[in-house]
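Berberine bridge enzyme-like 13
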Amino acid sequence: MYTICSSTLNSTNESFLQCFSSHLFPSNISSDVIFSQKSSQYLSILQSSIRNSRFLNASKPQYIVTPYNEAHIQAAVICSREHHMQVRVRSAGHDYEGLSYTSDVPFIIIDLFPIRSITVDIKNEHAWVGAGATLGELYYNISGLSNVHGFPAGSCPTVGVGGHISGGGFGTIFRKYGLAADNVIDAKMVDVNGNILDRKSMGEDLFWAIRGGGGASFGVIFSWKVRLVRVPATVTVFSIGKTLEQGATKLLNKWQTVADKLPQDLFIHAVIGVTSANSNGNKTVQVSFDGLFLGTAERLLSSIQNSFPELGVTRDNCTEMSWIQSVLYFAGYSITESVDVLINRTTQSTQLFKAKSDYVKEAIPETGLEGLYKMLVEEESLQLILTPYGGRMSEIGSSETPFPHRSGNLYGIQYILYWEAPEETEKHIGWMRRVYKYMEPHVSKSPRAAYFNYRDLDLGRNRKRNTSYAGARVWGLKYFKNNFNRLVRVKTSTDPHNFFWNEQSIPVLQ
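Predicted C-alpha cells:
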C-alpha cells in the first residue's frame, strides 16, 4: 500500500524533482515540462482541462507534468513509484467524476495535452494520433486530406482521444462501423516499470484490455493507431422535435421498437428535455429525434418511409452535407462555419453537472415514460440522450473488447443534469439519484449495466489501494459484465502492486 506522511512531504517533493531531472538527458529537460504549486502557470494549466466545475476546488496535485515525449512520461512514472506518489493521467479532462485530476492522497498529474500530433495515412486508411489530441483535432486532420474518410467516435470535439478510446467511444456512425475502440490497430504506452510498449511487445491480453477497459488502470497510453472508415461524399441530417402535447410519447414508443433495427446507414437518437409549453411559461417535456443518414436525402426518405413513417420526415426536414459538416452539426455548430472551430480546445462553461447511464433491453411502457416525465419537469437544464444500438454493434461479440454492451440492447441512456450554484449541488444530485432509482424496473438487470466513459462513483468506488476484488465487482460488473474477470487478470499480471490506481480502477487479485 502506497502512503506518505505530511511531515515528509516537502523533502519528498524535492526528491521527486531531483529524480525527474536525473532520468532525463539535458536536452530533454525543459522549464515547461513540470510545474509545482509555486509555478506561475500551475493554476491555469490545472484548470484548463477541468470540464466539471464541481471539482474546481478539489485537492490539487503536487506537480503537473506536461510531457513532450515519452521520456518525460517514463521519468514521471518511475519517480512517482520511487517516491510513493499517485499518478493521474489526463488528456482533455472530460471524465465525469474528475478522476484524472483529483485525488485524496499526494499525487501528480501527467497531462498529455502536448502529445497531440496526428499523422493521417489516407492511402493505407489509418492514422497515428497522440492521446492528448481531441476528437475535433482528429476529425479536422482527416477531413483536410479526404472528404470520404472519417472515424467512428463521439460528437463532442473537445473530448480527449486518450480517455475516449480507452473506454470504448461511440458516436453517430457507430451503428455502421462500431466503436472507436473497435477500430484501434496498435497503441504505444508506458507501463508501470517505465518501459515503452506497442501492441507486439505488450501482448494481446493487454492490448485487449486497453481498448475499452480504461487505459489508466494499466499504464500511460500516449499514442493510438486507428483504422479510418470510408464515408460517402454526401450525408443527410434531420431533426424532428415534438412536445408531449404534440404526440411525443407515441413517437418515442415507436422509436423504441424500430431504432435498433434501422439500416446501419441510419442513426436516429432521441433527446428528451424540458421546454416551455406556451407563453405562460408552463413546462413540458420535448423529445427531439435527430438523425444522420450515410447517403443522400432521396435514399434517406425511401429508407425511413419503410421503417419509421410515423416520424413524418420530409425533404424539407433534410439537409445534405459532407461528413465533416455533420460533425459540426452534431457538435452544435453551423455547417457553414469553418471546420477550424474543431481544433479549438477551450470550453467556457462554468457549469456543474452530474451524469448517469443505463441500457434498455425491452421497450419502456407508456406508463413508465409518463412517470419519468413528471420527474423531469422538476428540473430545467437536463437531457436524457437515448442512443440506438443494433447494426454493427450487434455483430461484434460482447467479449471481443472489454466493452460488453452489444447484442440485445435496444438503446443506451445518458442522464445529464447541469446547474450553476455550487450550494445547490446536493439538491440536484439527489434529484438525479431519484430518477435513476425510478428507472430501475425499466432497464437492464443482473447487472444493471452502465457505460464506463460516463463514470459514476455512485455505483461504488475503491476506497484505498488494497481494495478487494469482491468490493470492486459491484461497479466492475456494471461497466464490463463478464469481461471484468479478464480485466482483473490482466491488471494483476501487468501491475501486480496496483500502482495505477484510482477510485474505479481495475483491482488486482489479492
